[in-house]
Amino acid sequence: MTNPNGAGKIYYTLDGSDPRVFSASEPVEVFTLVDESMSKRVLVPTGPLDEAWKGGAEPFDDSYWNDSTFVSDKAGGVGYDENPNFKQYITYDVEDWMNIDTNVNANTTCYIRITFNLTEAHINKLKVGRNILAIHGLNSSTTSSDFLISVVLEAAKDIGSGGNGQEAGDISTGAIQYNGWPITLNETTRIKARVLVAMPIVPGAD
Questions:
Q1: How do residues 83-123 score in pLDDT, each as one tens digit?
Q2: Which of 155, 152, 150, 151 is nearest to 119 (CA)?
Q3: What share of the chain is helix, strand, coil (3-state, %, to 5)?
Q4: Calpha distance 43→116 (Å, rounded)
Q5: Considering only CA atoms, which of 34, 25, 17 is closest in space to residue 157?
Q6: pLDDT value for 200
Q7: CA pair distance 134, 153, nearest whole angstrom
Q8: Which of 203, 131, 190, 179 is nearest to 1 (CA)?
């Protein structure tokens, strides 16, 4: 095999599998970062809002975001329903702010902020410590009979590939580093090879 790049290392497999791990397949370990029941700040705006509400410029003052009626013993969602269908999910009832039947100045827009903390980073958009999940909810119209935003945020880690916790981008545990010597094959074999350039080698991959 010849490396066409002039740099990097060739890794190959003899079973047709990819030398590179692309995504978790089986099994995965799932972490719940934001549970449906977590505390929320809710605003139905009456005018423009600073883009800082989306996070990235914390601390942002959302202490006045109280545009809802709190209903205990519900699932944690934000919304309203003129019928009983969704009421079991609605902890933050916004009917008085978003339904024209109860408010002639109702708005179809609802902003939600959820603060959560991480002890370790899971993806590059999250960080250790305080994070913000910002949601822009939109209803079809102020005459709609219902509206519901209910959210769970999860992260998954691949614990497949023999249970070694490999993640996307890692070198597969079945990959072999090519050393330039001829490869002896005793039967029909599907070889798949890739060149790894400027990327750390995970322990046990070569």
A1: 999 999 999 999 999 999 999 999 999 999 999 988 876 66
A2: 155
A3: 5, 30, 65
A4: 18
A5: 25
A6: 44
A7: 11
A8: 179
Say how far apart CA 66 and CA 44 lie, in whole Å.
9
Amino acid letter for position 134: A
What is the DSSP code string of 16-38? S--SB--S--S-EEEEEEE-TTS
- Rounded Cα distance, 25 and 17, in Å: 13
What is the domain partition of the chain in residue ranges?
1-27+159-206, 34-152
pLDDT of residue 39: 95
Q: Find residue 154's DSSP bridge partners.
A: 32
Q: Which residues does the chain have with pLDDT short of 70? A: 4-6, 22-28, 121-125, 156-168, 198-206
pLDDT for 80: 97
pLDDT at residue 163 in the model: 46
Which residues pair with residue 196 across a beta bridge? 9
CA 165 to centroid of chain Cα atoms: 19
Residue owning tokens 């822009």: 136
**Measuring CA to CA, how many Å separate 86 from each of 7, 22, 78, 147, 151?**
59, 39, 10, 9, 14
